[in-house]
Amino acid sequence: MGEHATHLVWDWNGTLFHDIDAVIGATNAAFAEVGLEPITLERYRELYRVPVPLFYEHLMGRMPTDAEWLVMDEAFHRHYSDRRGHCGLTDGADTLLAGWRAAGGSQSILSMFGHDELIPLVRGFGIEPHFLRVDGRKGPSGGGKSEDMVRHLAALRSVAPGRTVVIGDAVDDAVAARHAGARAVLYTGGSHSRDRLRAAGVPIVDTLAEAVEVAGNLAA
């Protein structure tokens, strides 16, 4: 890969992996366990925050205690694991990944989904060969990805941050990109509403095909 080639860093959940229905189902199942009212997709997209305890603060009117957070986090991941098997790649994602690679572009995945679960999931869709690197979360859940983005790009020794574009579905993806010296494009099909995404001050798109096109122009 050349020093000046555009590199894409893909988010996984809500971006390449279309799991928003599983996320809402798991969220509401977890809420039921701790006495919170169910939430609609629209309200979820308006309120969701990273770090995730801020999301619960908006729902509860206060920050959850450490003990409450552990219970809610465990419940969410348990219910999500039950549902994710019904989810697939976002429409057209496999074709876009193959096309970017065939055209000489490089790409990787950085996700806050647990690393040990992410790797077999990506491998199971047959798309792992498209990526130079696939990194998931290796520490506690619920946090942002800014420092992970710095480490991810540093591990890709031939990738220049200034020629890198992050494609994700959350404001935190843009924050992480900026922190690492990269650019970002945000996709409306995941965890945030368009109005929420506007706060990031980066291009917003409705399809992954648009995301790839815009990303190519940003780092051209």
Automatic annotation (TrEMBL):
GO molecular function: phosphoglycolate phosphatase activity
Pfam family, one: Hydrolase_like
GO CC terms of this entry: cytosol
Gene Ontology biological process: DNA repair
Stated name of the protein: HAD family hydrolase
Presence of keyword Isomerase: no
Alphabetically ordered keywords of this record: Hydrolase
